[in-house]
Amino acid sequence: MKEETNKMINEQYKKMLEGKSVIRQLSEFATARGKEIGYENVFDYSLGNPSVPVPDAFNEEMIHLIQTKSSMEIHGYSPSLGITSVREKIADLIWNIRQRTFFRPQVQPERLHMRSAV
Fold first, then answer.
1. 82: alpha, beta or left, given left = phi > 0 and alpha = psi -120 to 50?
2. Measured between alpha carbons, how far is 51 from 54 in angstroms, rounded to an integer?
3. What is the C-alpha to C-alpha distance for residues 48 and 23, in angstroms, rounded to an integer?
4. Is 74 a residue whose pLDDT tops 90?
5. Distance between CA atoms of 54 and 45, rounded to whole angstroms?
6. Which residue spans within 1-118 are E strands per DSSP?
7. What gap in Å lies between CA 1 and CA 7, rounded to an integer?
8. What's the pTM?
9. Residue 14 vs residues 7, 21, 22: alpha-carbon distances, Å
10. Residue 15 has what pLDDT?
11. Rounded (to 5) percent helix, strand, coil in the chain
């Protein structure tokens, strides 16, 4: 039975790999569309490769961070429960939305559990 299950999974995996991913399809569409209307008129973010320059304000802030923060602050992992100031702001946001729509208790930042999405 185990061998049969493995074969089914292998076949499903092979089928999945045979098809193009949505991201690849979007990338190909952006390339084709760029040929039609000029690539400078297409904002292609399909593969995380922006086709527009980064705003100067972003570059300036990155330089500022590199000059004023430690490498651990910039490149280190955040606390496993999330950055306290971010949790506080999210709790405030949830509370403000709930005040307008529901009668609910205020959200406590320490009860928020932040997770990363990949």
1. left
2. 9
3. 10
4. no
5. 13
6. none
7. 10
8. 0.38
9. 10, 13, 17
10. 75
11. 65, 0, 35
